[in-house]
Specification:
The chain is an alpha+beta fold. It has four helices and five strands. Strands 1, 2, 3, 4 and 5 form a five-stranded antiparallel beta sheet that branches. Strand 3 and strand 4 form a beta hairpin. The longest helix is centred in the N-terminal third of the chain and has 19 residues, at 3-21.
């Protein structure tokens, strides 16, 4: 299976898991839930202020292949992007208590803007 097709399949599966698990359990810096459609840059600032830590669960294939994706340098928590033109990317975080959370964004420009929050899920 080609890498871009595999990335799309993974993104769709993550979307389904995120939809099932919801996301209201993950607090933002203001103490409320994350918001669908929120700019990832703003969410990132809020998570950092609340003590969340960027975390890379696995090397991003695009970043490790040496592609000129500036998001790899700007966002060390970037786990993967679908490279399908939809701008779906996964960003991994750890809460101050060590709980992992993945944030999925959509609509980025493929270079600098990671897009808006599409959904998220918190692992146990």
């Amino acid at each position: 299976m080609p890498l871009h097709l595999l990335s799309l399949v993974v993104a769709v599966l993550l979307a389904m898991v995120g939809a099932v698990m919801g996301g209201a359990v993950a607090p933002s810096a203001k103490g409320g839930p994350l918001e669908v459609g929120q700019a990832y840059g703003l969410l990132r600032q809020q998570l950092l202020a609340a003590g969340w830590t960027p975390f890379r669960t696995a090397p991003s294939p695009g970043c490790d292949a040496g592609l000129a994706d500036r998001r790899c340098r700007l966002f060390p928590e970037l786990g993967s992007c679908s490279h399908t033109g939809l701008g779906l990317c996964r960003f991994d975080w750890r809460s101050p208590q060590g709980q992992p959370m993945a944030v999925i964004t959509a609509g980025g420009d493929g270079q600098v803007d990671p897009g808006q929050v599409s959904h998220w899920f918190v692992s146990e």
